[in-house]
Amino acid sequence: MKRRNKVVTAVAVTVAVLAVLLAGASVYMVNYALCPEKEDVAVSEKRMLEEYPQLVPWTDSLRACGALRDTFVTAPDGARLHALYVRAPRPTRRTAVIVHGYTDNAVRMLHIGYLYHAGLGYNILLPDLRHAGLSDGEAIQMGWLDRKDVEQWLGEVPALFGDSVRAVVHGISMGAATTMMVSGDSVLDFVRCYVADCGYTDVWEQFSKELKGQFGLPAFPLLYTAGWVCQARYGWNFKEASALRQVAGCRLPMFFIHGDKDDYVPTWMVYELYDAKPEPKELWVTEGVDHAHSYKMYPEEYTRRVGRFAETWLDR
User: Are the CB atoms for 106 and 79 separated by under 8 Å?
Assistant: First the structure.
């Protein structure tokens, strides 16, 4: 009897220790994935202009005439959110809302702002998502709750650029996932199309891939318990945060772009997303391109393709 009690006690202690370790690992994973240190905006701009030196004259001229402006909104939960915006060189209703990726900020999307503003003559709005740039937020939301913030920013577009606007929403990486998540909700009538460049299918798949690739661990049990931690802290879980489900409900046009050498957000994801999205839709898989560098590798073709797609639907 005593021997049996010792075995039961040993098993109970082992289970308790494992539970504590799993809980600690789950908290660590959520902190690691969603709460990285924010990059200073000045550092982001320096990196951006070094990577894309063609932006320097453009940004200098915008600042010289006070055209690159800041704006803020307050979200329903009280968070103060920031965006950059620039009105087009000449009055136009064409407007691009441009959404940045994981651990980036609005400044890190200035190359796409340049594409639309300098290249195509659009108004541009570049939000800082939560825990990025000058926006509040203690954690990255991986696009799922961010979609509500982007939808709030869309509501600000007529006040910034005029009541006759027509908008394209363009995101890269996590910003593309955010864009696709927005696309499955009811949106304002002036939103006419979307561009999703190298976005993931859903947070669960992306985190599963990172968990295996970085740490050699399977999804079970850590991804499940970390998802519970995320739910308790931030009000959403990894399973529900699905761009794949959202695009299945999108009836507006979408242009998918993805590098064929992308191993961060694997290229196979874009084919699943494209198949799930009802018509109208387009797909461009860029040759020899890794993650989020399609514009860098093919700036002229990228501008031409995006311009043709957006103008087709904005001008109808």
Answer: no
